[in-house]
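Lab notebook, bench 4. The sequencing result for the construct came back, and we need a structural model before the next group meeting so we can plan mutations. Quick request posted to the team channel:

Model the 3D structure of this chain.
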Amino acid sequence: MVENRDRLYMRLALEEAWKYQLLTYPNPAVGAVVVDSSGAILGLDAHKEAGSAHAEVLAIRDAYTTLTSDRALCATEDSEFLHRELPKRAKNLFGDSTLYVTLEPCSHEGKTPPCSRLIAELGFKRVVIGTLDPNAEASGGAAMLQNAGIEVRVGVERKRCEELIEPFKKWMEGRFLFFKLAQTLNGVIDGGTISSEESRRWVHAVRGKIDTLLIGGGTVRADRPMLDGRLAGTKAPDVAVLTRNPDTIARDIPLFGVEGRSVEFVDYRGVSELEGLVMAEGGSGMFEALKKEMDWMVLFVAPFVKAGMGYNGAQSFELLHQSSRGGDAILWLRAKNGR
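Done. Here's the predicted structure in token form:
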């Protein structure tokens, strides 16, 4: 009974975290749930952006608001403020509650105070953790909570929780490269805009987080894109153009005119030297060129069919997660024969 309940709540935390996948870079995506002794959900939230409050803190904030008439905290994600105010206001409110979190609560003082210290101060009865933090600097929260007398369980839905933070782990190793693709139900990828405006806003938001946008030279020549983050109000990413013939690409194409951006040209060997979080976009040639370099693909499938061109070639993927945005299906796929 306890096992099934723990898995249920952890899956809720996972689902919430996936909504912000890649948007939390350079932090991992994390989700958290607070439940009371009867199993009622008091708070459910996720980390949304590096530098803002972590998932555990936001879920505890939501739980505090649920249990009290005090709404002074419900609209803020200011980490310092929440870490300071929650112990003063909540006191022993969570003595019979359980916190579920997909990743071990941090134990260090970084851009935010340590979550494990806050959880210990609030006196939670139990904390259930999906997987331990692979970052040695931030790990140790589970032991800190146990030393504070809190019952700790680690490893619930471990595989799914580790899949969630795979971009973070690969980035720590040097690079995480994902291919973004939009297509119709019948696989058409050309002929104008395909995905919904909401999906495109998400793409623009992610562009504001990445280190490099990798684009094929053929796509640049044909589409003359700008490749900025205007739909989400984010900064334009630096661009690497994959081409053997840089001199054939006109410099009056809009992407070259974006202020504060760097544009470099790379060949196939240069792709392997890119670092950090890299998003790739392009056509069939680009896809084929990156088959052994890509870690994941994020596939947007629009709910209509039309005539046009699709992708040719072969690649196998493992489905990690699926959701929807603006009417489009979103598939998060791990490349089986990638890096």
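The CA atoms of residues 199 and 221 lie 24 Å apart.
Will bring this to the meeting.
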